[in-house]
Design a protein that fits this description.
Radius of gyration: 22 Å
Distance between the termini: 57 Å
Shape: globular
Strand order of the largest sheet: 1-2-3
Length: 87
Amino acid sequence: MTGGEPKGVAEGVPVAVLPDPQLVTVTGVRPGLTVRRLGRNQIPAADWLCACGHHERARGRDRVTDLTTRARVDYCPHTEQHRRNAA
């Protein structure tokens, strides 16, 4: 080991710095509600991408029904809830 490497790093072993696993950047996807697999013998699925960036996914008839009931395309309940909590 020479004086330049940090302790515990073996010679010739690359060290990778990984990005924050909680940070996700989505490009090319517009906010809205997408429901798919509504055919016979298929398990329905839905994705809701809110304008604030909040994402929810549901699978199964009951969960998709619940998500489609709560999802709002023109209203963000997430930022409104934060505003109410701050007040």
